[in-house]
Amino acid sequence: MKAIEIHGLRFGEGLPKLCVPLTGQGIPALLSELQQVSALPADLYEWRMDCFFGDPVETLPAVMAGVGGKPVLCTMRTKDEGGQARLSPEEYEQRLAKLIQAGDFAMIDIELACGEERVSRLARLAKEKGMGVVVSKHDFEKTPPAKEISDTLVRMKNLGADLPKYAVMPHSPEDVLELLAATWDANCQVGPVITMSMGELGKVSRVAGGLFGSCLTFGAGQNASAPGQIDAENLRAILEDLQPYDGNAAGWNGQASRD
């Protein structure tokens, strides 16, 4: 599958892209966080707007000025999906539509849980503004069967996702294997996806997911935004050390090392 290019980043080519979350609750905390993470090896940032107490639209210019030209993924994570925002599906769509209209950032996260029609509308609006689209789903209770995960990732793609995202909670090593198998299957069908097993047990998926087609991984900066995130500097070093292939998972050449 071909790589997906969004604002100069080629997802699904080379190392998985490393995304560092921004979780500051107010403008002073957020600007301080931006200064601290500027030295980290991030390819892009995720601004967790649900953690921010002010008006994200009004604060966008300050954030964009502080990221040093790197792409920003804007996320309004709702309570049921592991975030802080308490919004009805209607309020969620209105909030994201206003944010997209404000523009001036690279990517938007749209939760599958808001409903397929809303996802499609928001995805179309984002693409009209030249933004990349992540459609996401989180399961903090379990790991569904591999086919269910894979089918959901494919459905997200069909709804307008450039990068479908699915995060699950494992309870056994077999659960982690289910997630990785689903990642490989979905990647073979629709190209690069974003997947992860959360928590301590799932950490291996954050460093090895690229081999199976997961094109982005989240590394903690000042704060982690989900259970199991690895420090960004350590994560980059591990990613560089573990890449045994040239290109992305779909481009695996099947050649074993001779060393």
What does this structure look like?
With 259 residues, the chain is of the alpha/beta class. Helices cover 37% and strands 20% of the residues. The chain has a nine-stranded parallel β-sheet. A two-stranded antiparallel ribbon has the order 1-2. Strand 5 (72-75), helix 3 and strand 6 (107-111) form a beta-alpha-beta unit. The chain is globular.
Concise structural overview:
The protein has 259 residues and is of the alpha/beta class. The chain is built from eight helices and eleven strands.
Keywords:
259 residues, disordered C terminus, two-stranded antiparallel ribbon, 37% helix, single chain, 8 helices, alpha/beta
Secondary-structure map:
Layout: E1 4-6, E2 9-11, E3 17-22, H1 27-37, E4 44-48, H2 56-66, E5 72-75, H3 89-102, E6 107-111, H4 116-128, E7 132-139, H5 146-158, E8 163-168, H6 173-190, E9 194-197, H7 203-208, E10 216-220, E11 230-231, H8 232-242
Parallel strand pairs: 3-4, 3-10, 4-5, 5-6, 6-7, 7-8, 8-9, 10-11
Antiparallel strand pairs: 1-2
Helix pairs in contact: 1-2, 3-4, 5-6
